[in-house]
């Protein structure tokens, strides 16, 4: 059985920052995404403890995939804090119709919960957030088995 623990959604930004420091690949599953601020733990080699998700994508050598709902184009591509136009040349973007799931997945650990990767999801809304071991030890196997994508 995979070990699981809950965190407040305000700590998701640190989970994402830690993933950028430790993972070779990150997959963000969120119908709505914004260029959120992420936080890094204190560690050598990271001068700025906070940076935007789009800056982290460019700064760190991590393979990033973002899976979104194409119906949320206005939010994800057009709005002022829209993430996808800022990162489209650096990441893989997948559109999945009727997507409602929210997850941030690496080969070893993952977040599952109710928070979209948006300012409100990480800073305002009361969300359910669980961090657990990725018992599949493979992002693609997790996506295929748990989400059918």
Structure in words:
With 149 residues, the chain is of the alpha+beta class. It has a single domain (4-147), classed as Endonuclease Chain A (Endonuclease, Chain A). Helices cover 28% and strands 25% of the residues. The strands form two sheets. A seven-stranded mixed β-sheet has the order 1-9-8-7-2-5-6, with helices on one face. Strand 7 (103-105) and strand 8 form a beta hairpin. It is globular and about 40 Å long. The mean pLDDT is 94.
Short description, anyone?
By secondary structure, this protein is of the alpha+beta class.
Helix proportion range: 25-40%
Low-confidence stretches: none
Main sheet makeup: 7 strands, mixed
Structural class assignment: alpha+beta
Q: Please state the second-level CATH architecture.
A: 2-Layer Sandwich
The CA-CA distance between the termini, in Å, is: 23 Å
The number of distinct β-strands equals: 9
The run of helices and strands is: EHEEEHEHHEEEHEH
What's the alpha carbon Rg, rounded to whole Å?
14 Å
User: Total number of helical segments?
Assistant: 6
Q: Mean pLDDT across all residues, rounded? A: 94
Provide the CATH top-level class.
Alpha Beta
Task: Name a few traits of the molecule.
149 residues; alpha+beta; Endonuclease, Chain A; seven-stranded mixed β-sheet; 25% strand
């Amino acid at each position: 059985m995979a070990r699981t623990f809950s965190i407040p959604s305000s700590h998701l930004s640190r989970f994402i920052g830690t993933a950028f420091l430790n993972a070779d690949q990150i997959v963000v599953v969120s119908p709505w995404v914004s260029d959120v601020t992420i936080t890094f733990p204190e560690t050598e080699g990271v001068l700025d403890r906070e940076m935007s998700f789009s800056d982290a994508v460019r700064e760190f050598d991590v393979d990033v995939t973002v899976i979104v709902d194409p119906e949320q184009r206005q939010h994800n591509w057009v709005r002022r804090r829209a993430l996808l136009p800022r990162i489209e040349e650096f990441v893989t973007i997948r559109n999945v119709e009727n997507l409602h799931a929210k997850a941030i997945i690496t080969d070893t650990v993952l977040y599952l919960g109710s928070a979209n990767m948006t300012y409100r999801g990480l800073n305002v809304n009361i969300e359910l957030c669980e961090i657990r071991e990725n018992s599949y030890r493979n992002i693609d196997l997790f996506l295929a088995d748990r989400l059918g994508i």
